[in-house]
């Protein structure tokens, strides 16, 4: 989960001291049935582009590990993997560490942990986990069994924490790829990103001076969950950012829906 990834990935970059974590807030009888169903196909898509070229890595659900005890689908990258421009062989980005876990039990969740380093040119990077199709729990039929069902109330939360490290003494920056206010970590209901309805976008930019490092976390809501005034039938997320050349970004992203039991 979130707190662990700060410790684990910090070790991968030599245990650099990153200072104090800053949290920023945005405001203050169920039937026994599955609450989420996996869409087949792509589990995770990673796309990168720079002045040197572009590259993409797609992970299929068949490459993931299913754990029936925890009802999770997971995939991990344990060795560094470089995405290169085919013609020139230039390294665009090095994927140092990636863990994706999709929780499909009672409370569906998409959890991503990662560390990447840019090549010799600034990059734009998107990590796009799969969409979860939700099956809201039915609590009754107010108008009889032939009428519309009444679903359990839903609530949700989104959290992310990102850190940057300057490795070549010229400063480091990450920022959102979209319009101001759109956020680097975007979460949506009712469709696969970018075609769903926005739940929240988190974190706009993080920067540090030469030789420095910085990290910021943000949560919506600041604690607990926020009630939804609709019944969600799907959820999706996307992490998109630009990263300065020869620098590192790492962190975690979590998006969770919970049913009122």
Task: Write out key terms for the chains shown.
disordered N terminus, 10-stranded mixed β-sheet, 10-stranded antiparallel β-sheet, 1 helix, mainly beta, 261 residues
Distance between the termini: 23 Å
Proportion of residues in helical segments: under 10%
Taken from the alpha-carbon principal axes, the silhouette is elongated
Mean pLDDT: 84
Structural class: mainly beta
Strand content: over 45%
How many helices? The count is 1
Low-confidence residue ranges: 1-35
String of helices and strands? HEEEEEEEEEEEEEEEEEEEEEE
Instruction: Tell me the total number of β-strands.
Output: 22
Structure description:
The protein is mainly β and 261 residues long. The protein is built from one helix and 22 strands. The chain has one helix spanning 2-12, and strands at 22-25, 36-38, 42-50, 53-60, 65-67, 72-77, 81-84, 91-103, 109-118, 123-129, 132-134, 138-140, 150-151, 154-165, 172-175, 185-189, 197-202, 205-208, 213-220, 226-227, 234-243, 248-259. The strands form three sheets. Strands 1, 5, 6, 7, 8, 9, 14, 19, 20 and 22 form a ten-stranded mixed sheet that branches. Strands 2, 3, 4, 10, 11, 15, 16, 17, 18 and 21 form a ten-stranded antiparallel sheet that branches.
């Amino acid at each position: 989960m979130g707190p662990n990834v700060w410790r684990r990935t910090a070790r991968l970059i030599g245990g650099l001291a990153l200072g104090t974590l800053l949290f920023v807030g945005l405001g203050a009888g169920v039937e026994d049935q599955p609450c989420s169903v996996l869409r087949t196909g792509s589990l995770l898509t990673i796309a990168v582009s720079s002045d040197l070229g572009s590259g993409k890595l797609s992970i299929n659900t068949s490459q993931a590990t299913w754990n029936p005890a925890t009802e999770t689908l997971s995939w991990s990258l344990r060795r560094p993997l470089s995405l290169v421009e085919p013609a020139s062989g230039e390294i665009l980005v090095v994927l140092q560490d990636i863990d994706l876990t999709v929780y499909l039990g009672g409370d569906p969740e998409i959890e991503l942990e990662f560390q990447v380093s840019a090549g010799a040119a600034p990059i734009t990077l998107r990590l796009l986990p799969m969409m979860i199709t939700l099956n809201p729990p039915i609590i009754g039929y107010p108008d009889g069994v032939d009428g519309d069902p009444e679903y359990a109330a839903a609530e949700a939360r989104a959290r992310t924490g990102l850190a940057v490290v300057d490795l070549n003494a010229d400063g480091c920056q990450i920022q959102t790829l979209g319009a101001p206010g759109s956020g680097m970590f975007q979460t949506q209901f009712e469709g696969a990103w970018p075609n769903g309805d926005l739940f929240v976008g988190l974190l706009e930019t993080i920067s540090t001076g030469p030789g420095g490092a910085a990290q910021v976390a943000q949560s919506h809501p600041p604690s607990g969950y926020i009630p939804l005034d609709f019944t969600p039938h799907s959820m999706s997320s996307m992490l998109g950012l630009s990263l300065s050349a020869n620098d590192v970004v790492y962190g975690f992203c979590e998006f969770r829906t919970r049913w009122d039991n």
